[in-house]
Amino acid sequence: MKRLLEAELIYGRLLPVDEPHLVERYNKALDGFGIRRTALGSFRIDMTGFSPEIADELGDKDYLDPNRVNRRFVIMTPEQVNLPVVHTSFSNTAALMHEFFSANARAINAITIRDALYGEIEDSVSVINDIDDLLSINEVDFRVLSAEDMLGKAGELRTLVDRLKTVPNAWQDDAMLNRMVELAKQTGDIRQNALVPDKLVFRHEAYWANHFGGIFVFLDDKTTTVICDPSAPGFRRSRPWQVSYIAKDDHQRIFDFLASTKRLDLPRGSWVEGSGLLQHRADMTVLGLVNQSEPTTDLAAADRIWLQTWMHRNASLVARDGAYPFLQEALRTIAATGELKMKDVPPPMRFLVVRAAPGHPDQWLVNRLVAQLVPHDFVSRFVFDKEGFYAAYEHFSEKFREFVVATLTRTYLKDKQGFRRKLFGIKEDDSNA
After folding, report:
1. pLDDT tens digits, one per residue of 113-137
2. DSSP 227-260
3. Mapped to the 3 state alphabet, what secondary structure does 382-400 carry?
4. φ, ψ for residue 62 (rounded to 5)?
């Protein structure tokens, strides 16, 4: 993991918190959660306020994610909106935080000048025991507090202002007037500064959750589709009249669902040739085979000529795996005819030649699912499924880890937006990846 840290492939782009008054505000938020204060004089935080350094100090990566539901957050500055979310149990945590920042920007800007906001993204359940618990989450409610009680003081001042305006002779109450002056010194003019967030309830859209080995939930007008391990509690039993269940190893049904709901970009010359995605996956396939069969191989010089030589020496292995020959034939077919007829492609191979439909609201979620179904492509896995990438990385050989980090640094990190746009057609950069 040290190599990932040094290359900023994990816990990268976090915000330093190193001023004493900010550390104290963060500690007051921890007090509010009933969590032991940090003794650190400096640490880094992500968009939600999660700190890997404090997680290490506490020995608890889920210190802001108890029971992996009802996510906690600490907002020290409006600048957090531009940070990634580096530890979460739900793929849409970042999207919900973005909505909260956007809907309440004025209040967040005003409050964080003198205070820190903290609280929970409250779901309708407190513990996830089965699929039905996940499906019962339709919306979330941001329960918000402030470390220095700025919200409470603003609310008290607003009540006193209303009393002054409506109660006869209230202006003669010296104690009340003195209290108003005292509060105003701390909150400023609440007529000009909106110190109370305007919107706290947000819709819970399609998502991936890390419960039960990973579960995908897709929402359509009249149907919810769940893709996960069939051993998950509640599979095909929770709300069968409303929910369609697909086993995560049922490639045929997964493909049919994604294609029929127009969530997939099927292989056509209009995007395949310009994107380079299929050739990228072909290269990833060969590299994966090298790692599987010869884990100690030094891949530093693994250019296209090196890979071709290796494939010639290991032709039977490449043929037995089948992915590389299939992708080369697919490229030739698309170049000649402009498309690939998917009915002729074995279901497990289909995900090698597709990507999420650009512009679809679920494109990030679909690309995460596709990345899980194409495990050799560690680059796509890192882009869309970091949790899965980190788990796979733990089982890579040292030589392959070195190569993986070098490849991600040379390709993806060099131009994230350009890389996603070219290979996956993602035009809007709203991922904070």
Report:
1. 888 999 999 888 889 999 999 999 9
2. EE-TTSTTTTTSSTTTEEEEETT-HHHHHHHHHH
3. HHHCHHHHHHHHCCCCHHH
4. -100, 25
Q: Mean pLDDT across the stretch 96-105? A: 91
Q: What's the first-to-final CA gap in the chain, in angstroms?
A: 19
Q: Can you name the residues that pair with 44 across neighbouring β-strands?
A: 16
CA nearest to 135, candidates 253, 257, 235, 258: 235
Report the candidate in 166, 248, 246, 216 with the shortest Cα–Cα distance to residue 366: 216
Whether 158 has a pLDDT exceeding 90, the answer reads no
Domain boundaries, the chain: 2-149+195-203, 249-424
* Whether residue 432 has pLDDT greater than 60: no
3-state secondary structure (DSSP) of residue 73? strand
70/123 Cα distance (integer angstroms)? 6
pLDDT at 430 over 60: no
DSSP 127: S
